[in-house]
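# step 3/5: fold
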Amino acid sequence: DIPVIAGTGSNNTAEALSLSRRAADAGADGLLLISPYYNKPEAQGFLNHYRTIADEVDLPQIVYNVPSRTGQSIPVDVTVELAEHPNIQGYKAASGDLNLISEVIERTREESFSVLSGDDGLTLPVLSIGGTGTISVVANVEPERSCAMVGAALSGDYDRARALHHELSPLVRELFAETNPIPVKEAMHIRDRGGPLVRSPLSRLSEERRDILRDLLAEYDEAAPGTVEPEVVEPATGGAE
């Protein structure tokens, strides 16, 4: 069986709790809870929010810190306190701040707590300082290479992990050339794994970027993991953004 982790976060604690209960009733194996966005809670507000859900819903839960989306980073002290709750078992690190992530890892070592990279470009650095895995965008498109990189790092084969990291890097950059999830939806469409459309107010990937992405994916398709050296072509100045 493949575990299913449901995204049930909200900036409204009551709504996040309701969504989490519905996910549990539907059979989800765990919850991913983005930190409350827009309202910018203080430390006690973060603690109350996450503890309310963890107390009421008996599923493993992952705290998701992505300040570029929410407008505020979860303080490390808050994360350390949350890690003491038996149902709060992980942390998706998407702050882009390796110093912050390192401190979270250092201060939660004694707990049964997983620190997972939420930035594809930082997955290998996070694993190298004690992270335990990743929640990835690029793995949707290149699962074999992504799993091989993580597996190599976790087994201590950093030469192979580095090679795969650099191999994936051009695709990672292209998948974030426009707002996520626009490029990854297009990449999955190119691979015949779903449609490219996104909900408004997002819009479909620009035609110029589609062509670049299609050519880049063709290079990955033609080579075994560890052998491709993609050439990335930047769009012409003045192209669609």
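# step 4/5: annotate
The mean pLDDT is 94.
# step 5/5: archive (pending)
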